[in-house]
Amino acid sequence: MRLVKTNRGTTQQNSTTPMLRLVLYKGEVYRLPATSQGLRVLSGIAWVTLTGQDIFLEAGEKALFTLRGEIALASALSDVPLVLEVWGDKDLFTLN
User: Fold this and answer.
1) What is the pTM of this model?
2) Residue 15 sits in a domain of what CATH number?
């Protein structure tokens, strides 16, 4: 498993779309699809857990990872709804 957190403000626009965009409210937990390879937080604060490793992402931040049979969970931490993009292809989800 590899998890990389990037800084805010480094989003590169392209014509592709995420495999999933979802909204979570404080206290809600979502199990990410096994094909997930990247996350981007559009609003709110995300708590992401991948096999015992936790990462916190705020609006504008993103993370790249590889799931190899592990369970990945995302949860909203703030009163602001968490809007999250889930990406399934590392080639389309660039970390510039």
Assistant:
1) 0.76
2) 2.60.120.10
